[in-house]
């Protein structure tokens, strides 16, 4: 055995791997001109791709919300005894969640934070707009925590606190 597909390389004409795969699928399924069906399937996939992206992105954000909440709940249960003897056991949890959310913001949205040096050392007020979900605030606090090791409190509409989780 040579490790390759001898049925595709044997013969007077050499063919590409995709052409060979098409011939193998035609023989296996018994359908003639399977390339036409595959090109139609790829066209439908191309047409429906934006619709899939529209539903996948919010789904990923919601799943990430609930995974973060579940992880914090498990972390709290695990460290209840340590909390009595340590001043702040939540440092590791904050670092990990900030890293996860910062990575998500950078990968999905290309989120960057500019002008952090203009935030005063003492208290300050950052006013910004957010859309249907407060994800940009989460990206902001995660990036601020990574860059400056500072926490940011929020004043929000009562709707935000009605979101499950």
Automatic annotation (TrEMBL):
<dbReference type="GO" id="GO:0016020">
    <property type="term" value="C:membrane"/>
</dbReference>
<protein>
    <submittedName>
        <fullName>TMM68 protein</fullName>
    </submittedName>
</protein>
<feature type="transmembrane region" description="Helical">
    <location>
        <begin position="43"/>
        <end position="72"/>
    </location>
</feature>
<keyword id="KW-0812">Transmembrane</keyword>
<keyword id="KW-1133">Transmembrane helix</keyword>
<keyword id="KW-0472">Membrane</keyword>
